[in-house]
Design brief:
three-stranded antiparallel beta sheet, two-stranded antiparallel ribbon, binds glycine
């Protein structure tokens, strides 16, 4: 046969290979030099923040330049130490480790605080990260004591840990999807102490949430309030989303990340299935913008003019790097890489002139209250740094 007949096939094949390469390149494009320099200037901004046990940096208004500072009892207190530990891991620079240790120590008293479910966010993001870098018995003891305190919020009839204590006249026993993240502390406490009771509580909480928090399309409610007499759900509502039936982006993120993490400790396929279903809902949503950085709620009718939530995007990217390990499904890896490519640019990394200990802009905390909307928030940085570390290991 004349060689000319092969030409269309050769051309077609070459085009296909080039298209695949381009697709991968878009998803995996390394930071350019300018972005890397910008990022390292932001890391240094964390070192410049004055050490003060009562002033954990939580967020910042770029309009006024004011930094929101909170005490250790705030749910966000542990992220700053976590950010320092993670930058230490990324850079190897011991200055970050020294600061991380100082800020971690200020969280310790939270191990006795039984008024909150946010123990994991506070203690595990700080002490838990510290444990990765030193085999510190004291850190282990703090984690186990914290798990003991958190366990006092578990209700056997409901089969879950109580999330919040406010709004008691409306919610009998509120459980929020965010609470899934606090289970990591319980799983680790069982590993450290050899006492299975923390792990059992985590599993019961995950099973109850699996049963009651999800809709048929795999999106989740924010708050489910239970009846403590019957143990059954009474109300399914929102606190931080657009409305009760909407899909608050960070809430979907807590679910994806939370069930992937629970699969890590249990190998229960039901958890993996839920993480995948909610991830598919998230990634394939018709309201997902082209750069992969979600709007704060998938059902905000003002989309495309609604604020983004880079914290939700970073949280999901981090969760999906882990989900990819268990599934080998490229969809998760490609979406996570796309998010990291978008976030690692001037569009999202704060300018070096910004005087505040933050890295990323455009997170949204509590839109219905108009609180922390479209601004730097400490947990956006936390999950971005964690995702950078996980991406490096791919
Ligand atoms: N855990 C509270 C929030 O995600 O805003």
């Amino acid at each position: 046969m004349n060689r000319i007949y092969y030409l269309p096939f050769i051309l077609g094949f070459t085009l296909l290979v080039t298209a695949c390469k381009l697709k991968n390149n878009v998803a995996k494009e390394p930071n350019n030099k300018e972005n890397t320099i910008l990022l390292s200037s932001r890391y240094n901004a964390l070192l410049e923040y004055p050490v003060d046990s009562l002033s954990f940096p939580r967020s910042m208004s770029l309009t006024t330049g004011k930094i929101r500072k909170v005490p250790s009892k705030d749910w966000c207190s542990g992220f700053f130490a976590g950010n320092l530990w993670q930058i230490y891991e990324l850079t190897g620079d011991v200055k970050f480790k020294e600061k991380a240790k100082q800020w971690t120590a200020f969280i310790e008293k939270e191990k006795f605080n039984n008024k909150t479910h946010d123990m994991g966010f506070k203690v595990f993001c700080s002490f838990g990260n510290g444990l990765k870098h030193e085999n510190n018995q004291h850190y282990k003891d703090v984690i186990v004591k914290s798990a003991q305190t958190l366990s006092t919020r578990f209700n056997k009839k409901v089969g879950a840990i109580r999330s919040w204590d406010f709004n008691k006249e409306v919610w009998d026993f509120p459980v929020i999807i965010d609470n899934m993240l606090n289970l990591e502390l319980l799983f680790e406490a069982s590993k450290i102490s050899g006492d299975a009771k923390y792990r059992d509580i985590a599993i019961q909480h995950a099973n109850t949430t699996l049963k009651n928090h999800f809709r048929p399309d795999a999106s989740c409610y924010h708050v489910v309030s239970y009846d403590t007499i019957t143990g059954k759900p009474k109300m399914k509502v929102t606190h931080q989303g657009y409305n009760d039936e909407s899909s608050w982006a960070r809430g979907q993120g807590w679910a994806i990340y939370g069930y992937t993490m629970c699969y890590r400790y249990t190998k229960d396929k039901a958890y993996l299935k839920q993480a995948e279903a909610t991830a598919n809902y998230f990634i394939n949503n018709k309201n997902m913008p082209d750069d992969g950085i979600v709007y704060w709620d998938f059902k905000d009718p003002t989309i495309p003019n609604a604020p983004r939530d880079s914290s939700a995007a970073a949280l999901v990217a981090s969760g999906l790097y882990e989900l990819y390990d268990y599934t080998k499904n490229d969809i998760y890896l490609n979406y996570a890489n796309k998010v990291m490519t978008s976030l690692s640019t001037k569009n999202y990394i704060l300018d070096k002139t910004v005087k505040g200990p933050f890295i990323l802009d455009h997170s949204t905390g509590h839109k219905p209250k108009n609180d922390e909307v479209d601004e730097p928030i400490v947990y956006g940085d936390y999950y971005y740094l964690e995702a950078l570390l996980r991406q490096k290991k791919k």
